[in-house]
Structure formats: C-alpha cells, structure tokens
Amino acid sequence: MNVKDLKVGCQTFTWEMLGDRFTGGPDDLLKAIADGGYAGIEITDTMIGRYAARPAEFATALKATGLTLVSFAFGSKSGFTRKDQIGADLETAKRWIDFAAEFPGALVSMGSATVVSDGPRDDKFAIAAEIYNRAGELGRQAGVQVALHPSSHHNTLLFDRADYDRIFSLIDASLVGWVPDTGHILRGHRDMADTLTTYRDRIRYVHLKDVDAAGTWAMLGKGICDTAKVIEIASAAPNFNGWLVLEEESETAAADPAKAVKTNRQTMRGYGA
Fold first, then answer.
1. Do 158 and 150 contact (CB within 8 A), yes or no?
2. Sign of the dihedral through C-alpha 89, 90, 94, 97
3. Which of 130, 232, 238, 241 would suit a FRET pair with 206, their CA atoms being 20 to 30 Å apart?
4. At CA 268, angle to CA 263 and CA 273, rounded to 5?
5. Which residue range or ranges hold the Xylose isomerase-like TIM barrel domain (predicted)?
6. What is the domain class of 3-269 according to CATH?
7. Which has the closest alpha carbon to 149: 214, 76, 88?
8. How far apart are CA 179 and CA 110, in angstroms?
C-alpha cells in the first residue's frame, strides 16, 4: 500500500478523557474532527450519545460532515475478565456489532482486558480470550470485523510483550484482529517495531499516539514514536485496511482538544498521509 492511499481518522477519546469538563455531544465531535481535516472517526460507546440506538441518523450526520465511521470502540466494566459477566459482555458486543453493520467497512474495536477482581492471571487471560473469540464469531455472522485494542492504562492485563504473546496465542486470528496502539506499546515495552512485525498479519488498522522517553503522553511527533516505521510496517501488513487513527491523550490535548487533533492532522501530512 502506498502512503498516498492511507486514510487518517480521529479517535474521540481525546474528548472523553476530559470527563465532566466536556459538555458537548456527538455532533460537536463530528464538527471538530471534520474541521481538523480528518476523513474518518472512531467513536466510543461513551461518546455516541443520542445516536446509540439511531444508526441511520448517525449515518446522516456523518455524511453531512464528510466523515467515514472507521470503527466503533467499546469497553466493559468487567474488564472482559469476569466469568460471571461473559454473557453480558457478549450481549454488549452484539449490540455494537449490529450498530457497526449499518456502516460498510466499519469495524468494532474491543478494549483491553483489565484486572477488576481477584483471582489467577491465567484465568483472566482465558476468560478474555473466550470473550474476544466469541465476539469475533458474532462479528463474522454479521459481516463485521472485530479487533482487539490492548492498552497501558491502570490494571490492564495486556501491558508488556509477554502479555501480547499470551493473549494472541489464545485468540483465533481468523476471528479477531488487532488494533495496535503505538503509545500503549511504547509504554509497556520498547520493541514496538518487532511487536508490529511479529503480529502484522493481525493488524486491521492502527492507533497512532506518541509518548516521551518516560512514557508520558506527548503530541504526535514530539515523543519517541517512529511514525515513519509504523507506517512502513502497517502498509505491508496483508489485512491492514489503510486507516491510521490518531488518538491524543496529552496535556496539550486536555487544554484544547480540537486544536490538538488539528495539529496532529497537520503533522501527519509531513509523512505524506
């Protein structure tokens, strides 16, 4: 895939991380992202707001702003690691898979398995893998690709390379893809290029984020992420759909989300995307 064929989207967590300080709604997000120069959006279950049960209306809003739904992302209070919540987590997965099915090409991104209760880590990996695989099967039935998005946030089960190796050994690659997040990989381990290359067949699209050497979130291009290398590896991945989704969690973004994501979009133009 040539760089000129890449598409750049924006993740809405930049606003979600503000909590109560963000008083807008999904239409405000669409406007800010479109005005920032993006072609697509990845929205979360927290930020979809009044469109949660109205995919047709959301499609109309997207069309009005010229945006494509890249992916719908959701997490779980169970951390996808509680056996007694498997049924509930799969019901939620089906809800959002059915939503995404209304948007051709849109994926569903499932959040990182997280430790929210006591018990052996082995059991938590097994439960998470069961949920991901079964959700992937639901996606296959609906014609929607499902992908896993590991993180480095508090109590994540999927932090370092050993964790990635563990979960990928348990997940059916034909059912569940991977959304690598450069910032989270760098916070958990320094072998980002090797990790991306080792599991490149699983890559569906990419989350681009940056961190400094201490692991603190930084604006894209201001940290240690080798963005050009990421683009090179992803572009050669057989199942990569061409979307680079920028997600910004730095203090700069917390002060002015719309300005920060617009700046990141300008940064990406320096890479030809």
1. yes
2. positive
3. 130
4. 140
5. 31-268
6. alpha beta
7. 76
8. 9
Let me know: does 255 contact 218? Beta carbons within 8 Å: no
Angle at 117 between CA 115 and CA 121, to 5 degrees: 55
CA 93/CA 89 separation, integer angstroms: 6
First and final C-alpha spacing in the chain: 12
Q: What is the pLDDT along the chain (273 residues), one digit of tens a residue?
A: 777 689 999 999 999 999 999 999 999 999 999 999 999 999 999 999 999 999 999 999 999 999 999 999 999 999 999 999 999 999 999 999 999 999 999 999 999 999 999 999 999 999 999 999 999 999 999 999 999 999 999 999 999 999 999 999 999 999 999 999 999 999 997 789 999 999 999 999 999 999 999 999 999 999 999 999 999 999 999 999 999 999 999 999 999 999 999 999 999 999 989
Identify which of 90, 67, 209, 216 has the alpha carbon closest to the alpha carbon of residue 142.
Answer: 90
Q: What are the extents of the domains in the chain?
A: 3-269
Distance CA 267, CA 269 (A): 5
* DSSP assigned state of 48: -
Per the CB < 8 A criterion, the answer to whether 101 and 57 are in contact is no
